[in-house]
Amino acid sequence: MQAVLEAVVEPRRREILRLVREHEMLAGSIAAHFPDVSRPTVSQHLRVLRDAGLLHERRDGTRRLYRTRPEGFAEVRAFFDEFWGDRLQALKREAEREQRRRDAGQNR
Amino acid sequence: MQAVLEAVVEPRRREILRLVREHEMLAGSIAAHFPDVSRPTVSQHLRVLRDAGLLHERRDGTRRLYRTRPEGFAEVRAFFDEFWGDRLQALKREAEREQRRRDAGQNR
DNA sequence: ACCTTTCGTCGGCTTGCACTTACGTAGGTA
DNA sequence: TACCTACGTAAGTGCAAGCCGACGAAAGGT
Questions:
Q1: Residue range of the domain that includes B81
Q2: Which residue of A39, A69, B39, B62 lies most exposed, with the fewest beta carbons within 10 A?
Q3: Whole-model pTM?
Q4: Which of B6, B84, B85 sits opposite A9 (nearest CB)?
Q5: What is the per-residue pLDDT across A53-84, written as a single tens digit (0 to 9) for each?
Q6: Number of structural domains in chain A
């Protein structure tokens, strides 16, 4: 949970997650998408994402292929749902209050 | 989006969000829930959360009351939805349908 | 055996964040 | 007016995170 949030707060790491969301990609190809950052830096980002459970790593010879691991998002999603659910409930209360207002107006 | 993630990555700030999820609370009462940290520190946390759009501030004299602002989570929630696996596609559609229903209600 | 490719790791540097104490501010009260 | 309460803000400190160049490891080709 904490590791997932720490991994996702870095913009380049979010971009990596989007890059390998649909198909797996070579570590080098991923690094090539970030010309303003060095390859070792991208390698460190990949490690953070992997340790957080957001990336899956597959080895083919000396090469490594990565893809996103959707299950890793479950916990953090549940956290955000805590607050989103309240919003739905609040809107329901709002609707009910509006309904009562309408009813009161009809009784005039 | 970036501000929301930066706000939420800090554990105490997540705890604050849970504290004022249902009722608004005085800044001092919130600070009292964190005996291991000073009051100015909590005040700074409140500012970060507020600037990220996750907290609503109401003033009553010299006192300030805070409560969570669920709408602030919309963007980050959409981001995590991108990565939700096919297994949970049904749940995602359910949530989106509920959101569309809510939007339709707001347009009245 | 030797070299190349592909990638991770290490040591260091710099920047940014959470934290503290000291101070400032705005509203209420005697 | 003077004072107290309930806050936020400012300045400084320590530590962790992101970055780089240099190095190391592992597999494959010649």
A1: 74-106
A2: B62
A3: 0.83
A4: B6
A5: 999 999 999 999 999 999 999 999 999 989 87
A6: 1
